[in-house]
Amino acid sequence: MSRCGAYSISGIGGWKLPSKDELQALHRAMRGGHPFAGDHSRLYWSSEAASDYRAWSVHMSDGSMGEYLRFYNFLAWPVRNVQ
Length: 83
What we know:
This protein is of the alpha+beta class. The protein is built from two helices and five strands; from the N terminus they run αβαββββ. It has one domain (2-33, 40-80). The strands form two sheets. It has a three-stranded antiparallel beta sheet. A two-stranded antiparallel sheet has the order 1-5. The radius of gyration is 13 Å and the shape is globular.
């Protein structure tokens, strides 16, 4: 998660790994089309721990959630809180 905090796009910081609820909200928003390039129908890590060795992830193809061992090579989708 520390990599998201250090992430910067065009000098804009404040990024974080989203919660599982935030990832599911992204999935729902994307069903009607979205401005993001590429294929996003894969598993993305959330910031939420399921246990000491597992974390929650969301599959963006259908919005399903699951607990996975943290060493799996899933993707991260950094988000920002915008006021």
